[in-house]
Amino acid sequence: MWSIFTLSVSTNRFTWTSDSGLRDKPEKWRVPPLLTAAQRDLGRRHLQAKARPRPDGGRNTQTPDGGATPLVVSLALSAFSLFSEEAEQKPEKDVKEDSAEDEIIFLLKKAKLCIMKGELEEAERLLHEAARLSHQSDNKNGIIYTYDTMANLAFLRGQLDHAEKLFKAAMSLLLAGNMKQDDNAIIEMSLKLASIYAAQDQVQLALAGYQFCILTLEEKIAKQKGLATDALPAEEEQIDTHLLLGLSLDSYARYLLAHKQAAAAERLYERALQISTEVQGETHPQTIVLMNDLATAIDAQGRYDDAYARVKRASDLAQQTEHPETYVILNNLAGILMHKEDFSQARQVYKEALKRAEEAGEGAVVQHIRKELTELARRQKLARSAENSIKKGDEGGKD
User: Fold this and answer.
1) Is 58 contained in some domain?
2) What angle do CA 289, 294, 300 make, to 5 degrees?
3) Residue 153 placed within a domain
4) Exposed/middle/buried for 341, CB within 10 Å: 0-12, 13-18, 19+?
5) In which domain of life is the source organism classified (predicted)?
6) Sign of torsion over alpha carbons 200, 201, 203, 209
7) Helix and strand totals (H; E) in the chain
């Protein structure tokens, strides 16, 4: 393991992964993800907006990777083998245990609903009650699941030290229960820990975490290619594994881009985009976001025409599919047009992005776009001054 236990124990976004690990259990145990993996900050590479929880997930309130990218909190809940199957006839003790399990599930669902509504303090209260009941009933799986949920909440609230301890506690319990290190549940939590370390500027741990996730998933997928059909995992698990690899590549790319390593980020974004396109399709919201992010990495290298082609495709698809944050992608399109010195078109696109952001009530984004319009006016003025100087020089030469 990648030094994960060094302790003496991440745009709202769209789901890369599902409830892997819960699929074999009764429907009542399929608690929906606490934070949809949107894991994604929807291309806010140029935005330093402070995010807020939304009905379909949660956005973090920090910029963990040292740049303008909000911390990606929204990985799908780690997958656990929760609770035993119900038997037709059970002793009185088992009936009591079932009652406790039902109460734990009820509390977890209520906590999730509170998080979706932005009622984070009430969610924390409910989770502490679930943890108390899990310990009281000695329900180890309930403890693990509650710890993981509490860690996600702490992650969302920016309580990174607390989130780190909870994730590591949950991982310790999972590994003690003979879960393998390459299980998707372990890798998901490892990726969250890598994001925490990135936010804390613990560079070596962050890099080790990202690399562990990517290499482990690549090896896992390579091994599966050599297996007979009847020995392969369920199709849903195979999809989860591929999407988790895409998410890991995406997260690492954002980290690299924030640390001025645009060329390396570009290569990872290309791979993440390929996975998302193959598994989810070109019009999936996540795929569109990745097109935009890839354009940002290319733009950072000064290849403006190539970046424009990428972001224009993302913008067209976003508008065709009514992407919920089209204004973010339009903002990035306008920024690249400005870099191309197509000032007139950039202004037009910025105004459209501004209109959509205002309609969406995104005050921080509105403020950012207005600053970009000011920068656009400044650059345009400088360009005109340069043109006038050149003209005067030419006229002087003729004289």
Assistant:
1) yes
2) 130
3) yes
4) exposed
5) Eukaryota
6) positive
7) 13, 0
- pLDDT-based confidence at 167, cuts 50/70/90? very high
CA distances from 313 to 159, 223, 251, 332 (A): 37, 35, 22, 12
Show the 3-state SS of 53-65: CECCECCCCCCCC
The pair of three-digit structure tokens given for residue 340, joined into one six-digit string: 């191309």
The burial class, CB within 10 Å (0-12 / 13-18 / 19+), for 284 is: middle
Q: What is the CATH number of the domain that holds 71?
A: 1.25.40.10
**Assigned domain for 105 exists:** yes
Q: Give the per-residue pLDDT at 59.
A: 33
Domain count across the chain = 1
- For residue 213, give its domain range: 1-81+101-259
Which tokens go with 380? 């345009």
**pLDDT given for residue 352 in this prediction:** 97
pTM over 0.90: no
Residue 251 burial (C-beta neighbours within 10 Å; 0-12, 13-18, 19+): buried
Highest mean pLDDT pick, 148-157, 177-186, 374-383: 374-383
Burial 117-139 (b: 16+ CB within 10 A, else e): eeebeebbebbebbbebbeebeb
What distance in Å separates the CA atoms of residue 35 and residue 28, rounded to the nearest whole number?
19
52: in domain:
yes
Please report the pLDDT score of residue 366 as a whole number: 94
**pLDDT digit string (tens) for 44-83?**
333 322 232 222 333 333 333 333 322 222 222 332 323 3
For residues 342 and 254, what is the distance between their CA atoms, to the nearest angstrom?
Answer: 27
The yes-or-no verdict on residue 91 having pLDDT over 80 is no
Q: Phi/psi at 69 (nearest 5 deg)? A: -100, 125
Minimum mean pLDDT range among 158-172, 230-244, 365-379:
230-244
- Asked whether 187 and 171 are in contact (CB, 8 A), the reply is no
Q: Which two tokens stand for residue 71?
A: 């911390």
